Write the C-alpha cells for this entry.
Amino acid sequence: MFKKLPFILMTLTFVLVLAACGSKNDAGTEGAASNGSGEAATELSGNILAVGSTALLPLVEQAGQKFMAVDEYKNVTVQVQGGGSGTGLTQVSDGQATIGNSDVFAEEKLEDEAKVKELVDHQVAVVAMAPVSNKDAGVEDLTKQQLVDIFSGKVKNWKDVGGADKAIVIVNRPSSSGTRATFEKYALGAKMGDIQGSIQEDSSGNVKKLVSETPGAIGYLALSYLDDSLQVLKYEGVEATVENVEAGTYPVWAYEHMYTKGEPDAATKAFLDYILSDEIQQNDVTELGYIPMSGMKVKRDAAGNVVE
C-alpha cells in the first residue's frame, strides 16, 4: 500500500492540472462565442427616449421594436414619443430626452446658438411632403402661388383654383411642427400666419383623418402617410415621388434628423447605427415611405441651399 502512495499522489496531481486547464478553456470559449473575435463582448444596457417629429415617428417606432428584439440589445429599452420637431429639439437640448427627432436642422428651430452647437446631427432618412386634399375638392395640381393664396386666406373656394364650388378648409400644423416648417419653406417659400377658422392638428395622423373626412379640406403630409383616402396634389406639375425627390426635381423634402446632446452613449450609438444599417434602410425606410440617405443625388445645407 505504502509503495503505491507516490503513484496515487502523482495521478491526483495530474487530474487536478487537467481540470484546471479545462476550466480555463471553457471561459475562453464563452467569450469568443459572444462576439466572434475571441474577446469578451460588452453587453449594452440602458434606456433611450426619442421624442419629436411625428413624421419620423413611424420609422423610429418600428426600428426600435426590431432593435430591442435583437439578442445583443435585449437590455436596451427604446421609448418613442411624438410632439413635433420643436419639442424634440427642446427636450434633447434640455436633457429630458436622449434623442430629439426633427424634420428640420436645429439651427432653424433653436434661437440659442450655444445650444445648437451642443447638439450632434444624425441624419437617418429623407422625408418628402405633399399637399393633400379631400377627394371632393376637384383639383389634382396646384402651383406654388395657388398654395400661397390658399394658405394665406386669399383664396377661400376651390372653384377659384379650378376645382369644385366648395369652401376650402385648411388643416394646418402648429408652429412647432417640423412638417409645417418644411412645407412653408420649400412649398410656400415663406412662413404663414394662422388663418382664422383654420384647423390645427398636432400630429400627421390626425391631419390625414381630418382631410380625408372633411369636405373641402386641404393639408400636407409626409409620403409615409399617403394612401387612397386622400387626393395627393402635384406641385407645379411634379408628383411627389421618390425618384423626383432623389433627382432634386421635387423640392418639398427634408432630412430626418435624430439629434443627440453631444456624442451618443454606447447604447444610443448602437441604435442609431442600427437605423442606418442596410437592414433598416433597404426595408423599413422604403416600406414606410421614406427615402434612404444613400438614394439622394442632391444635398442641402441648413439654409436650404443645394450644395451637391
Remarks:
- The two ends are 91 Å apart (CA to CA).
- The chain is about 40% helix and 20% strand.
